[in-house]
Amino acid sequence: SPRQLREICVLAMGEFGKIKLMYGPESDRPLAVKTLSKQYLLRRGDQACYMEERDALVANRGNRWIPQLEQALQDEEFLHLVMEYAPGGDLLGLLARQEHAVISEADARFYMAELIMALHTLHQTGFVHRDVKPGNVLIAADGHVKLADFGSCARMGPSGLVLSSVSVGTPDYVSPEVLRAQENAGGTSATYGCECDWWSVGVLLYECLYGDPPFAGDTLLDTYNRVMHHQRYLVFPDDEDVEVSDAAKDLIRRLLCDRETRIGLSGVEEIQQHPFFAGVNWEQLHTSR
C-alpha cells in the first residue's frame, strides 16, 4: 500500500507530480517513488504515457542499465511507480559541480558509452525514449549509468518507427524529426525511430565537452528554430580552456544531422565503431559490472 511507504525527501517535482525518496514498510533500503496525479493525467489525456512508462519498465526487468520497477501502486488520487534508487545523482548535477560545467573527454566517453548501451537495450525491447537529457542519466552507487524517466517513451511498430504527433521531449535535446512530426499532426509521414535518441546523445556529448547544449536559444521558438536549422547553428567554440578532439567533433557532427544520414540509423554498431570510442571494449561493458 502507498500509505506504508515512509517519505524521506522530495527528489524532484514537476507538473505531473513528484519523485520522492522513500523507505518500504519493513526495509531500510531507499526507493525512488514517482507519484503521478490521476486528475492531471486525465486532464491532459496522458493516461497512455503512464501505461507506456510502466510497460517499458516491466519489459526491462533485469536490465541493469535501467532502474528496476519494484511495484506499481495506486490510491484514490495518485499512481505510484516504486523504483530502484540511484544515490549518485544524475549527469546534470555532475556537470553543475565541475569547473566550466564540463568533464574530460575520457569521462564523457565513459558516460556516453554506457548511455548508448542503455538506449540500445531499451530499443531492443521495442521502445524509444524520446527525452534523453542530463537529468535522466542517473548515476548508481557503483558509478555506472542508469537511464531514467520513461514518461515520454513510445512503443515502436513492426517497422521500427513511431507514428506520433504528440509534443514530447525537452527543447534543448529534442531532434528535428520529432519537432517535424509535431508540426505535421495528423499527417501520414509523421514517423521516426530510435535515431531520435541518438540525436540527444549528440547534444549530451556536446554539452559534456563545451558546457552548454548546442542549440539553446533565448526563447522556446528560438531554440526550435536552431534545432530545425542545425546545419547553420552547430558551431564549435574556439576556447583555449576547452580542448576537444577531432574525433569527438566528428561524432557530434554525425549525430547532430538529418536523420537520413545520422550515424546509428543502420544500427548501434555504427556508433560503437566510431574512432571516438576507440579503446572501448563494448563486449566487456555489456557483460561486466
TrEMBL record:
It comes from the Eukaryota. Pfam families: Pkinase. Gene3D superfamilies: Phosphorylase Kinase, domain 1, Transferase(Phosphotransferase) domain 1. Signal peptide: none annotated. Residues 5-277 form the Protein kinase domain. One of its GO terms (cellular component) is cytoskeleton. Keywords: Kinase, Phosphoprotein, Transferase. One of its GO terms (biological process) is actomyosin structure organization. It catalyses: L-seryl-[protein] + ATP = O-phospho-L-seryl-[protein] + ADP + H(+); L-threonyl-[protein] + ATP = O-phospho-L-threonyl-[protein] + ADP + H(+). This is Kinase-like domain-containing protein.
